[in-house]
Amino acid sequence: MSIRLSRRTLIGSLGTGAGGLLLAGCDKINASPTVQTLLGVGEKATFAAQRVVADRAALAPEYAASQMSPFFRTNGVSMPSTNAYAAHLASNFADWRLAVDGLVANPLALSLDQIRAAPRRTQITRHDCVEGWSAIGQWTGLPLGMLLKQAGLKSSARYIVFHCADESRGVPYYESIDLIDAFHPQTILAWAMNGQPLAVGHGAPLRLRVERQLGYKQAKYVMRIEAVASLAGIGGGKGGYWEDVVGYQWYAGI
Amino acid sequence: MTQDEDATPPAAPADADGARGGDIVARHRLVTRLWHGTNAFSVFVMLMSGLMIFNAHPHLYWGQYGANFDHSWLDILPGRVRVGPWTIPTPGVLGVQAGGRIVAFPPLVTIPSHYDLASARQWHFAFAWLLVVPGLLFGAWGFAARHFQRDLAPSAAELKPAHLLHDIGRHVRLRFPTGAAARRYNILQKLAYLTVLFVLLPGVALTGLTMSPAMDAAWPWLLHLFGGRPSARSIHFLCAFGLALFILVHLVMVVLAGPINEIRSMITGRYRLPKEKGE
Asked: Which parts of the sequence belong to the Cytochrome b561 bacterial/Ni-hydrogenase domain (chain B) (predicted)?
């Protein structure tokens, strides 16, 4: 009896010890810069393969009104905390202006009324969170490509950066996309959702919809759109808030 | 080749080329061994990083949409798992406290061990290449070299209920084929390998692609095939569960059938045919 107990204890402690070593080993491997570089090759291969397989104008699936989520949950910041945003909200965005600048021939400052009066696209699409959930909603907004043509994108521009009003850990949210997605027909600056003006929780007054990528690319509370040649000077240099903070992949097509 | 005779003849039967129990024979071809090697590596990384990704949202849904306020069919909650109407207590196993948060799958089985969705995705999508590319090459070779047709396709006789029951009975009693009969896959092996090759592996790969918003734009038929992204995510999880179950049974069978001989045959290709009892 005593032998059996001690054997069991031994096996148990061996198991725990081996498990601990295994965990420490795995995490050490994960932290190694070489391993991160190797895994980065996989990420680049995925991006390249998806760009090859998906035509640059291939449309994200659009859904019927009957297929929409009964309740579309909010995610991330649901109320920006700055005084400037509070003032905009109080005045119903009367003095709010969308700045379009950077590598453009004609920098723009557009009011919400001007944006709403511009040509619009309405689409019922699926929002896929990086965490795994999906919600289907209807979005109406100004095609980003039209805005960029209006601003006269310079030939040196390679990326479009979105600067936002919401802050996390004291840093304003930012995201970026390449020109293939920027000029994609379904990439819009949405000012309405499910037939209503965009709610604060979903990014009022204006949010990005870039339908072939995950949720964290769908920047809410967009204040300024900047055309740049490189992402090196933006935030931590990885092209987006979550990319810089926790290391999410810049290309979020998967 | 002679027709598959009854698995337990009284005397050691000679194979077409005269192999009997105790002989060393060539069993697995190089391509099979190479593919087994890459899989042994990639499948574990895929399963473990997949469990970490699952931890980010431990709920599964059917249909075109599925988020927190929608009806899920599976939830891993603190200390319990709900599957449809059933709740199974899992204290200390699933839904455990780790690193200041509740995680569905515990640190011991996830990559990385601590909650890190970004890294898990990086591992998962890099090793997906190591799973899919060799898998496609092996699949093409398997048909071209007639490995699937010759060694895996069950004969009509093998699929007869009597034969299946006989084989199940022998497995339950842990009596494995010996002598020349051990050169061929038995019907349960064939069915298990065919399920892995043509159901579970294509299943995980295609449902994995369906979860990619860019791939849904490129190949909209994926969504039609699986009935929506949340459905694809559920099927992805079920196929992965099936693969994990297969690996578990596979490893148990290797141990029971003689681990040294079995592992050697998968590394060098050389296999010693088990001797018949009383030989």
From this structure: 27-269
